[in-house]
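Our platform keeps sequence and structure together, in a single record for each protein. Such a record has a labelled line for the sequence and another for the backbone structure tokens. The tokens are whole numbers drawn from a learned vocabulary of local backbone shapes. The remainder of this section carries one protein's record, kept here as part of the documentation:
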Amino acid sequence: GARRGYRAGPLWPRPTRPAPAGCRHGRGSSPQTSRSYGARCRPAPGAGPAAWGAIGNYMLLFLAGLQSIPDDIYESASIDGATKVQQFWYMTVPLLAPIMQIVIMLAIINSLKGYESIMVLTEGGPIGRTEVMFLYVYKLLFPMPSAGATLDPQFGYGSAVGFVTAIIVGMITLVYQYMSRKMNKIN
């Protein structure tokens, strides 16, 4: 009953995509926002839309990691006189290190490819200040008339920019994996 609800709780934001999650009731802040969600949508304050969707996935990974730690370890530590705080810092955190590495890598990748909320809330404006790499690629392949772009898709250039972007994300991932392997060797 309650235990299942507690486990499923972090997953409830996941079905909500970043675009509608970034809106709250009010007047539209841009033509795209007004068209997509009616005149009752304006940006939600803070960085909520950017971090909202993946929290449930990360919590699920941490929950799986916590459940994989045997109780015998904590029992042995308490017999040896370790406090709960010491058990957390010297046992739980190091045993969750592989999960933390995966979560950090996924967060880096998600932060690089997240463009949906920016597209709906600001369309990359004002004057391109909030435009990210993947929104730029999207605008090249699927031009938006309200964004001031030409209405002709630029498939060749857009594909090339998308390919370079994928290489950049791959390189960042490889660097992170190299650094996390190096950290594992130190521990």
Q: What stands out?
A: The first helix runs from residue 2 to 8. The mean pLDDT is 74.
